[in-house]
Amino acid sequence: MPAVWHDLSADAQDLAILAALLSPLLLLGWGICRGYALMPLLRSLFLRHLWTNLAFIALVAISVGLGVGLIAQERGLRTATARVAEKFDLVIAAPGDEIGMLMATVFLQPSDAPLLDGQMWQRVAEAAKGSARIAPLAYGDSWQGHTLIGSTAEFVTHLSGDLAEGTAFTAPSQAVVGAGVPLRVGQGFAPAHGSSPAAEADAHDDMTVRVVGRMRATGSPWDSAIILPVEGVWLAHGLGNGHADAEDPQVGPPFAPQYFPGTPAILVTTRDLPTAYALQSRFDGDDSMAFFPGAVLSRLHGLMGNLREIMSVMSVVTQVIVLAAVTTGLIVLSRLFSRRLALLQALGAPARMIFALIWSYAALLLGIGAVLGLAVAFGAVHLLSAMLSARTGLLIAADLGWAELHLVAACLALGLLVALIPALVALRRDVTEALRR
Amino acid sequence: MSLPLSISGLTVRAGARALLTIEELALPACSLTCIRGPSGAGKTTALHALAGLLSGTGRLAWGDADLCRMSRMARTRFRGAQMGMVFQDFLLFEELTARENALISAVFRPDRAALSRRADALMERLGLSGLAQRRADRLSGGERQRVAVVRALAHDPAILLADEPTASLDRATADALIADLAALARAEGRSVVIASHDPQVWDAMDRVLTIRDGVLEAG
């Protein structure tokens, strides 16, 4: 049996879990309602207290929708951040906070970081020679809120592949912009010193950078970044061009260690894992810090995973509370139907039919609520994704998946089980008393 | 097929208190009987006992079926097969059409096609054909009670029990309803027991019984 299970595709396994969650209740429902044509009565009960029924449905839909939506959102956020970090194999920076450096280099969150000097650059370059590619990542300036990154043309290619438009930069005063930057190819701009809101807009007024290319969309904060040769960043700050000849028009490595002004981070892209681990081990010490963004992110995801579990538990608890409220409501509501139920019993309706009617009525409300809850979750997920994407620059493609369907199915299953209570309570009422009422 | 009623030593209790006592009573098949008495005397209780909704000690037999010896489930089954009931305030499902109300017992009966045919015929006979698709809450009191009668007779029961069927109707409508009910019952050979304090109903019946303080007298 385990072998058969493992041979199934992931979708088939998920479908089987969904069926396993729902089928006992479908069977139970079939067993309870078998032989009865309940639709006219269900329609009557539904229309009788229409607004109350709609309120019950809304309550279930909102509780399911928000619970499921938040969990789907968390997964979307995790997937989006992992996708961005994929491009960043190994980051070397000055010793400090790995998470802060991760946020600064991968997610472009403003940060003041100490610089790695030319000696360090040289050591990394020599260690990586033939087995890895390295690129400086120098940040600190901006244009209208868009972060400026000094790096290399090779890094641009690594990040976005072919350009969507224009060419790679070949001079310090040229730049390639991210897909979401409102600058046209050929347009010039003067960088501001620092990042918003404290950026000094006129600090580099004497420098005009011209856009020569546009990257393809990456679904990351880099879509709103502007990348220029690292020499351009250094020259804007009067630090030279990093080469032995100050008039050298060349951009990109090799840099002369004694003229290298410094960089907050070096990105190392390796061909294989052993090389990456060897470099990480070599440069993670007193003079520098080397970390795998993916590993740091994984730790963060671990923390988020704990949050996810808490959110899942809270979501289930909320739904159980809503279920309890709906069940109590249904018991009260079924009291209002007691004369009608008594009439049916007076006409010869068997107890199972009364039980089936109230159970199906509860199942109807819970079922509609659960389905609408999925729609609410779908809407909430897309709204939250759009809001978070706008805030972070991450393309968060959160969507409902099997896990959410399983959660809804489990809640529905629990609800249908709990719905047996009002059905049992309805059976215990005195028929003659209800008829006299 | 109609059923005779035979009662002896029947007592229906609520705790220690006797709600209904009937020493001896025999009603022939196909008879139309009225139970009269002041408010609170026990007319409805008597009707509920005859329907098997209340259980008692002694003997209460429709034909050979002694309700006092039956389980609740068996009484329900007997009621569903052999009885139809009509109530003072119609007890219709207001959100459904007249025809849906007339066919309400099709929800739990297997013979839906036969039930449907008979309900349509009864509706035509009681002048309700044109109102079949009208919602119950848009019918007059008389029309509602006619729908309730069709509902009670759609499965062709041997016994019809009615609790103050004319109490919510004006005189003319009440008279027409009782005339129709009596005619239908006689034509189809049904036993009818009606609880009513309406003298016009008494006049239309074969026999009138009186109940006082929960004691039904056969006289």
TrEMBL record, chain A:
InterPro entries: ABC-4/HrtB_transporter (IPR051125). Keywords: Membrane, Transmembrane, Transmembrane helix. The chain crosses the membrane at residues 15-38, 50-72, 310-333, 354-385, 405-427. This is Putative ABC transport system permease protein.
From TrEMBL, chain B:
PROSITE patterns: ABC_TRANSPORTER_1, ABC_TRANSPORTER_2. It comes from the Bacteria. One of its GO terms (cellular component) is plasma membrane. The keyword Transmembrane does not apply. GO terms for molecular function: ATP binding; ATP hydrolysis activity; transmembrane transporter activity. Residues 5-219 form the ABC transporter domain. Signal peptide: none annotated. Keywords: ATP-binding, Nucleotide-binding. InterPro entries: AAA+_ATPase (IPR003593), ABC_transporter-like_ATP-bd (IPR003439), ABC_transporter-like_CS (IPR017871), ABC_transpr_LolD-like (IPR015854), P-loop_NTPase (IPR027417). PANTHER family: IMPORT ATP-BINDING PROTEIN, LIPOPROTEIN-RELEASING SYSTEM ATP-BINDING PROTEIN LOLD. Belongs to the ABC transporter superfamily. This is Putative ABC transport system ATP-binding protein. It comes from Paracoccus isoporae.
